[in-house]
């Protein structure tokens, strides 16, 4: 593989890996973002659920507390409605109340006097252990949690100052009443069963001091101050420790999620009683109810799908890239092959150019050496020159085609004349090889049609030339023309060249129309050519909107079929028909002005013209030509051969100048002689006032034809 | 070489470099000191410290004992100066704002929940817990049950019966009705306070009064009136005696055991009491303080050992020290830990669900407490009154003074406290904080200043594990005024004893300087306290020459090798010390040269 291809492949590999990396990272980032978003949404939902639960729980706790107050109020009403007169009677009344209440009542009732003595409904008198609750500047209703002096169980104490102190006869003044109940009895509502086990519920003061924890549950924060203990927790999402502290202090609601000792909890606080807070901890897994796992699975699956899609996309891109690469590599190989073909062509061409040149030079040398009988050598030189000319013509034609400078000039043509002209082009060579050439026009209906005769001629001449070239001696070549019935004035004409030549392999047939392609190298030494002919033929056929088909097999000859759509037309009288090239009249006596800046070419042309019996005057440049013509007598010159590319004044300018001369023979025929043989060049010469065009190197036959055409006698009607 | 290979090698090299650098950085350099400094007023914490260090040798304690003459005052000074070690042991809890400022909030730790709610309520400062409490003991009156039975004396159930009992004892025997630790002036104040708690101070009005009195908006007469009235009854019954003014807890208990008295006011020394009664064939019992009326008994509980952590342990960089300190607190907060801190079976553990049983002798006190007739020893809030009022009361009850004069005194002191003008008691001024060494030098200089000898020697306090050795010089002075409360901080106990002297040769003095004061206890445990000197330079003494050496009474107590070899002088150490300091006027580091 060439360095270029390797570099291309390497470049491709370099792009693929980063692309894959980017794709993976993108998938990961998107997954994470999605997970975060989903997590947050779920968190919001769970938060709402927790808020509702804690509100419900606090309502139930407050309701329980309210019920106990109601109970106490009932007892207050009773002792006030039926006041005792003495402490003994008070105690008796309390005992009666105790006995009248439910058996094994979880609560106890007592009255407290101004001396901090407590009269209990089991009939005992004790010292009230919490005198700090009794000052008059404290609220009338107070709740406290204390431990029992007897068994240490936690009790909730409801203390109410009597609206009116009750004065007993023995000087005792009752100032307060108290109801005490075991916490375990009072607050079963603290258990938040809706979230399963593992929850912790605390009742705290507003400074976080723990008053009560439901002992049946696992303790999340075994600390005296729940708020202080949470200082080490990590508050998640947009909640903060300070927000919780503030909510508890202000007896407001709060819900959030925390990370405490590697466990996630939802924590909620709600106000209860008048100056307390209920703080609830529920493990996050209880609240999420397994949705976290579900979400994680969902995210993993989605990430997996996204990753798979990414992989597929990347593979597709790789495949596409590979195909593109392969296409590019193919194109590159084609280009390389074309380049190699060109290189080969150049190599061959240089050989082909050098070969006739060598022949020319060699023959010249021999002619010089054997100038007594140089004719053999000169003939060889002539052959080599023709060979060289053909070579250069092919190259120029191909170049013109590749540059798109071939224009189709449609004009009515006689197909018979066309075919004859093509046969004439190869007749001599065919005769040399004893190849029979036949023409079959039996398939023609309309012999006149509109097309570019020049291009058609070139196409058929090329095919016939190849047929002659590749048909061994005593072979046969058939040129056949046929057509289908016209449709809307257009008919498909088929021009077929069949030979009994060596034929072509299927491999070559597949690429035969590619420039510089030839059958294997062995054949090229025997059958010389540029390899451009068929390529030129195909290009020209395509220019004419036609198609070319090939049938061939090695050793069995070939058949080329050119199918062209042409508009059928009526016969046209060609006033400029040359007639048979071989039947030209004499051109002697014509006075010719030859303008050619190249001395050698001027000499050659002069010699040829003088050989034909012409009188030749020469000019070295366009200005000289104009001067000489202007200085000549009117009618002196019968024809001017004007080279186009000349110093001082080029041929076109000289022709225009001559045409502008105030002379009656200013319309003398001017024929351009130039190596530029393209249609536009011809147009330029016509635009400059020139009459005709001869391509260099000069073809004697064409030269004679032109001379004959513009012979003054012919013009006068003589011939 | 491929790029990936090069990159891999570079990464490997970089990683290796990081690992090596990190390893090398770990070598050399100073090892951090994670030892915990701990201030303790007694050796009750030793068993706990020993247990912890045995279980976790990484925990190292640097014990800084203070056994001087003013334990509570000294600790209070250190709190106020915020000059505290890592762990603080105290017999009382300072004022709430000081706790919050100097100590670490422990309320967030789980071991706090091991304590009874009532204990935590008393310890709580604005929802925080800054000190934990050790075992406490109940205060009351201990009596010889056997003697009572022999004499036909009934155990009183109220104040009237108690007064009657006292009078009967006087009438029927020669023994002292009751002993009490009169050597501490505070005893008399706390007695008056407890008697006041039998009635008024345990009522709503009493609670209100306490609050108002703290703000200087109420008269002491209103709050302590009932208590003082009861005290007068005690005086009239003849409970008080001049002999009691020199008496310690242990002396009073010994007299009870020895039937030299019928009762003793059991303020401290409960463990000593239990130990002694076990040795006696008599049976003993206790009953609470009684007030007027029925169901007016009261039982105060002594302050248990308080333990707190310096706030700086919560700062970054002290994580390891905090971790070790918390280990101590966690152990302290268990029944096992409290048992180790328990001085006797009479101590009540402050923990929830404690299985520790009180001795039968203390059952009545326990019952009193269970019925709510109890409160922690009310020291906090009366620091300004305690000593001075106690002295006044001691003087009055033993010498027939006007007890009512105490009200005026208390009101005056309280007003001064409110106005922050305690000029009445300023005896001297310390110009700047002195070190322990400088303060000790003051003590030895003062001893030398008695003029009783050529050279004075006094021991300097150091930690002596396994044996309690009380030095003559303790603690340090801080910048500020010195009054009767804090002037005695540097001197050791037995300060009411006279300064002693001993003639010694130069070589003996040098030998003593070298060995220190070596003491061996009954358990055979020995340790020493180093001496410092003032006067003649010990290095320059002639070995054979006789010199008179002046010693502090703190160095000449029981178990001391100097006890029987020194001669007491006429100079009472505490009195001279105060005169000396007062005479200096302004205490500067130069005074401690």
Automatic annotation (TrEMBL), chain A:
It is an enzyme of class 2 (transferase). Keywords: Kinase, Phosphoprotein, Transferase, Two-component regulatory system. Its EC number is 2.7.13.3. The modification 4-aspartylphosphate is found at residue 643. It catalyses: ATP + protein L-histidine = ADP + protein N-phospho-L-histidine. The keyword Hydrolase does not apply. GO terms for cellular component: plasma membrane. PROSITE patterns: HIS_KIN (PS50109), RESPONSE_REGULATORY (PS50110). Residues 348-568 form the Histidine kinase domain. The keyword Transferase applies. InterPro entries: CheY-like_superfamily (IPR011006), HATPase_C_sf (IPR036890), HATPase_dom (IPR003594), His_kinase_dom (IPR005467), HisK_dim/P_dom (IPR003661), HisK_dim/P_sf (IPR036097), Sig_transdc_His_kin-like_C (IPR004358), Sig_transdc_resp-reg_receiver (IPR001789). Residues 591-711 form the Response regulatory domain. Pfam families: HATPase_c (PF02518), HisKA (PF00512), Response_reg (PF00072). GO terms for molecular function: histidine phosphotransfer kinase activity; phosphorelay sensor kinase activity. It comes from the Bacteria. In the N-terminal section; belongs to the phytochrome family. May play the central regulatory role in sporulation. It may be an element of the effector pathway responsible for the activation of sporulation genes in response to nutritional stress. Spo0A may act in concert with spo0H (a sigma factor) to control the expression of some genes that are critical to the sporulation process. This is Circadian input-output histidine kinase CikA.
Automatic annotation (TrEMBL), chain B:
This is Carbohydrate ABC transporter substrate-binding protein (CUT1 family). Residues 1-26 form the signal peptide. Keywords: Signal. It comes from Cuneatibacter caecimuris. Transmembrane segments: none annotated. InterPro entries: Bact_solute-bd_prot1. It comes from the Bacteria. PROSITE patterns: PROKAR_LIPOPROTEIN. The keyword Acyltransferase does not apply. The keyword DNA-binding does not apply.
